[in-house]
Amino acid sequence: MLQNPEYDYNTSRPQLLLTEYGRNVQNMIQFIIKLEDREERNKYAQAVIELMGFLNPHLRDVTDFKHKLWDHLFVISDFKLDVDSPYPIPSRDTLISKPQKVPYPADRIHFKHYGKTVELMIAKAKNVEDPERRSVFVAAIANFMKMAYVNWNKDTVADETIINDLKILSGGELELGENTNLAKVEFRAPPRVQNPRHNGKKNNQGAGGANNRKRNNNQNGKRFS
Predict the structure, then answer these.
(1) Residue ranges of domains in the chain
(2) Are 81 and 45 in contact, with CB atoms under 8 Å apart?
(3) What is d(CA 79, CA 89) in angstroms, rounded to the nearest whole number?
(4) What is the rounded distance in angstroms from the CA atom of residue 147 to the CA atom of residue 91?
């Protein structure tokens, strides 16, 4: 579609760098950039900061929201604004730089229902030298393993299975004491929540139906008497 040169179209305007502040704020900042007097630029920049805070009141819930507004001011100016800021002036590299990649764990989990945390706890327990403290640590790990197993499989599990899995994961270095009974764990399905709209309706309908039947029987008895 052809555009009339007499009108100012959005497609012909500079791109909005932060759309939440709108076109007028960006035009004001561009106006400030062209001012030659630094003192005048500082005065107008402070006024624009107040306007930006008024247009986005939700930023007041952000910690140090004034700092955020000043950062946005420099972003909207495409980092060309030369004013005195109460905060360190950001650079293009610090605000637009890509975050570092978070390494994804590539280690294989032997038993998925126990998860990686159990393997880390077992590795930690191997380094415990105090026999009594180590025994308590191993018992806690075994009880946690039983809970994880039941939550995953939704079924009961024998203590012998947990003891055997613990031995496999620890490479035979961790064992439970004799006659150790692990905590009893049962899977319980969440209770069914009754729809409040249906509360009492069934009983009321039953009582109403009985009353209606009784009323009909009385009327029929009178009719044939």
Answers:
(1) 10-96, 106-189
(2) yes
(3) 9
(4) 51
Concatenate the DSSP letters of all residues of 181-213 into one string.
-PPP----PPPPPPPGGGTTHHHHHHHHHHHHH
Rounded CA-CA distance 142/150 in Å is 12
Strands (E), the chain: none
Residue 13 near residue 64 (C-beta atoms within 8 A): no
Backbone angles phi, psi at 6, to 5 degrees: -80, -15
Per-residue pLDDT of the chain (225 residues; tens, 9 = 90+): 445 556 666 667 778 888 889 889 999 999 999 999 999 999 999 999 999 988 888 877 777 888 989 999 999 999 999 999 999 988 888 776 777 888 877 778 888 888 888 999 999 999 998 988 998 999 999 999 999 888 888 778 888 888 899 999 998 898 887 677 888 776 666 666 666 565 555 444 555 555 555 555 555 554 444
Distance CA 70, CA 85 (A): 7
CA 160 to chain centre: 38
Six-digit token string for 54: 């008024």
d(CA 38, CA 41) in angstroms, rounded, equals 5
Contact between residue 122 and residue 141 where contact means Cβ atoms under 8 Å apart = yes
Query: One-letter amino acid identity for 47?
Result: A
Chain centre distance of CA 97: 24
Residue 4 DSSP symbol: -
Closest of 39, 8, 38, 4 to residue 23, by C-alpha: 8
Residue type (1 letter), 131: P
